[in-house]
Amino acid sequence: MSNRAAPSRDELVGRATELAPLLAKNAIWQEENRVLHDDTIDALTEAGLLRLTLPARYGGYECDTRTLVDVLSEIAIGDGAASWVATVWNISTWLTGLFPDEVQDEVIARGDVRICGTFAPHAVGVPTEGGIVLNGKWSFNTGARQSAWDAHAAVRVVEGQDPEPILVLVPTEDLEVIDDWYASGLRGTGSVTTVANDVFVPDERILPMVPVMQAGKHNSVTNAKSRLWNVPFLPWACAVTSATAYGLSRAARAAFLERLPTRAITYTDYEHQSHAPITHVQFADAEARIDESGFHVHRVADRVDAKTGEPWSLQDRVSARLDLGVGVQRAKEAVDILNNASGASSVLNTVPIQRIARDSQTSSLHAFAHPDTNLELYGRVLCGLEPNTQFL
User: Fold this and answer.
1) Per the structure, how many domains does the chain have?
2) Are residues 130 and 145 in the same domain?
3) What is the dihedral of CA 367, 68, 27, 17, to 10 degrees?
4) Which of 63, 72, 278, 294 is the most exposed place for a label (fewest CB within 10 A)?
């Protein structure tokens, strides 16, 4: 166990920046094989970028939300798939920190364990002596083939009582893994389906979800003293899950600028694309949208950090969802503009912006992040209606 001081934000972001060439180099292989390359995982691990939400007593950094967002965004400049997998692994490590200390000793004490999971309750747990018997399946389980544990949502069904949403920790080896991740974007994330067939989960690895989501209550004695586990989960998750989309918009900017000096506009008199007024308009428009995305992503991150340990109103919570939705929306708009301005040669798989565009599109369709869903939620509350979700 270790409680050494965590690296600074600048150092952690710098480590992510240094990984960009390696992440970019492995991106095509990862798309073809639909998982992260071992070298990518090793690099993320050695740089400490999978310890951002690990308790300090296990050698983790317990990063503030702004730092976490900045690091994950920087990873996305190298590769969106690596960023999204790192996001899921860090979120799932945070969730593990909510469980009793003895469970954490079992699951994350060695420091570099990888935990995946989904937050959609697509399984049912039936009580039995000492725990539950779990059956169900979870699609879009990012990183499952390269993870040791799964943190999954489920529903505990007790006769005569309302179904109870729960969070369970299950060894990946106890689940059936269905290799069905054939996607148009974020291909390297390995977001396969996992299935529970009569899996026993002991009581100590079960956590009621509603107290976690709404009141920030959990079963860890040690982590109760940490700022990291005194934030409301879903507003925190709004910031963290928006980082990849924002990073992809910055990746598109970098990819566009790298090719710009050597590009003409075919079938025109422009020998240099950079001399065309349309290019100036396109790039300025994209840049403004990248800035707007960063504003929303950082606003929710900074609000989470500023309000640590304080109560969150309904307005605070739906505002976090708004920042997530608009941050993702503006990022995708910027990527689309730059992709459209990149010409026919950009469709080749050796040109990064086509992959960035597909990753951005896929990211924007995530059920939690979808701009339309979040804008509708925010608008409902502004109009005096009750929210149409418990995921606040």
Assistant:
1) 3
2) yes
3) 150
4) 278
Tokens of 25: 């180099």
Does residue 18 fall inside a structural domain? yes
- Give the residue from 97, 113, 129 where a domain finishes: 113
Tokens of 29: 């292989």
In the block, residue with structure tokens 């689309």: 336
Would you call 24 helix, strand, or coil by DSSP? Answer: helix
CB crowding 89-112: b at 16 or more within 10 Å, else e: bbbbbbbbbbbbbebbebbbeebb
Say if 121 falls within a structural domain: yes
Q: What are 229-260's pLDDT values in tens digits?
A: 988 899 999 999 999 999 999 999 999 999 99
The sign one gets for the Cα dihedral 155, 158, 159, 164 is negative
How far, in Å, CA of 299 to CA of 303, rounded? 6
Q: Which of 77, 25, 145 is nearest to 359 (CA)?
A: 77
Maximal CA-CA distance, the chain = 78
Enclosing domain of residue 145: 115-208
- Determine the Cα–Cα distance for residues 260 and 280; give it in Å rounded to an integer: 12
Rounded to the nearest 5°, which phi and psi values hold at 346? -75, -10
Whether residue 105 is found in the same domain as residue 120: no
Q: Are 87 and 40 found together in one domain?
A: yes
For 320-341, what is each residue's pLDDT tens digit? 999 999 999 999 999 999 999 9
Backbone angles phi, psi at 390, to 5 degrees: -90, -5
Residue with tokens 């940490």: 226
Most confident listed range (109-118, 219-228, 366-375): 366-375
